[in-house]
Amino acid sequence: MAEDAPKSRMRGPARKALITAAALKLFASKGYHATSLAEIAAEAGAARTVMYDHFPSKRVLLLSVMQEQNAALVEYVGARITASGPPEDRMRSTIDAYFGFAQSKPAARRLLFDRTDEDDPEIRTVRQGIRESRTHAVAALLGTDMRAVGVLPGEPIAEAVVELIITGLDGAAQWWERNPETSRSSLVEGAMRLLWTGLGHAR
Amino acid sequence: MAEDAPKSRMRGPARKALITAAALKLFASKGYHATSLAEIAAEAGAARTVMYDHFPSKRVLLLSVMQEQNAALVEYVGARITASGPPEDRMRSTIDAYFGFAQSKPAARRLLFDRTDEDDPEIRTVRQGIRESRTHAVAALLGTDMRAVGVLPGEPIAEAVVELIITGLDGAAQWWERNPETSRSSLVEGAMRLLWTGLGHAR
DNA sequence: ACATTTGCCGACATCCATGTCGGTTAAAGT
DNA sequence: ACTTTAACCGACATGGATGTCGGCAAATGT
């Protein structure tokens, strides 16, 4: 666990940051229900009851961390995709940005994408909202390209295809976590071969 | 909950079947940790302690249900894919078979694919084994098609691409569960447009 | 008919998690 | 300096879940 040999007191926001970091790490690795506030507190180097000085409940803590990390994802990817250039380059850069995020913040990726703990109604709602905004953003990004293969952007089926792409890329990111020796560029290339070229087209 | 106006006793296997059915339903909808043995027992129309007459622990119960449903998946898909014919038809039939399974046994799909409850080491191991066998089966199925777009079947990257396909199709299946008015054939067609044709190829 | 098996359950022991309260004391404010 | 704020924590109350034990009684066998 985190050590605090200096027994001086922290300021509120500093402790809060430690707590959210610990919560991110533990929620992402073991899931919501399997993680206790006591564990998070220990990881953050504080007594369990300190948690309640910063968050009213375990659920609100999870929700806060999710919102925070989703903002980080949006910011990370948004800053990296190239808005101009040919469609192929735009798509490649988006895929690369997502894999970059998965690489630099693996815990955040797990927390945001692994479908888990949907038993709680409020958590489910927030997750759904995050997913929908993601889907719409990507749909807007790929609109014209999908029309080119006969999937009309307005139609519901377009949403399904976007969902396939997003979930699929995340599946590849999960695989990457289990096989870290693979290079990011190989991964991007493989994904492009599949999603852009298509399995039906020989070199 | 399940009603049993006749208060006659069941035979062992019959009760066991009720229990596994209830466990499948609840584990799939609320997740492992959020489901108690008491709920499962109630759903199966028996007292909580009856569970221990059939399964030594909650964990073993989950493991049993997972193995059982995975066997059902393998059998369902295996019975439906056409082994012969052009590659495009083979792939289409496989996708259609998977969506068919998702449609006819939604709870099983959720239990097997939703990445959840990986905190327990034994559960994690079993999940991993199931996923790997799935991946290898699909990789064998698509070997030659992937070579055609420059992804060599032996290379690790091929595994990542297969993982992308599988996870992506499951993501589409999840979307379908939320949008059930879409027809299965549209879904199959959309997936084929993306995975077989590729976004880079106009009509 | 009677004995044996076995499906079924109530009561108990144990553990662990969440959330509350009030006190203590380091640090900030003036 | 000395007052006030607020970071920190120990102890408690409560609730819920897992797993055990022993007994009752319906099916079943002979």
UniProtKB/TrEMBL annotation, chains A, B:
<dbReference type="InterPro" id="IPR050109">
    <property type="entry name" value="HTH-type_TetR-like_transc_reg"/>
</dbReference>
<keyword id="KW-0238">DNA-binding</keyword>
<protein>
    <submittedName>
        <fullName>TetR/AcrR family transcriptional regulator</fullName>
    </submittedName>
</protein>
<dbReference type="InterPro" id="IPR036271">
    <property type="entry name" value="Tet_transcr_reg_TetR-rel_C_sf"/>
</dbReference>
<feature type="DNA-binding region" description="H-T-H motif">
    <location>
        <begin position="36"/>
        <end position="55"/>
    </location>
</feature>
<dbReference type="InterPro" id="IPR023772">
    <property type="entry name" value="DNA-bd_HTH_TetR-type_CS"/>
</dbReference>
<dbReference type="InterPro" id="IPR009057">
    <property type="entry name" value="Homeodomain-like_sf"/>
</dbReference>
<feature type="domain" description="HTH tetR-type">
    <location>
        <begin position="13"/>
        <end position="73"/>
    </location>
</feature>
<dbReference type="Pfam" id="PF00440">
    <property type="entry name" value="TetR_N"/>
</dbReference>
<dbReference type="InterPro" id="IPR001647">
    <property type="entry name" value="HTH_TetR"/>
</dbReference>
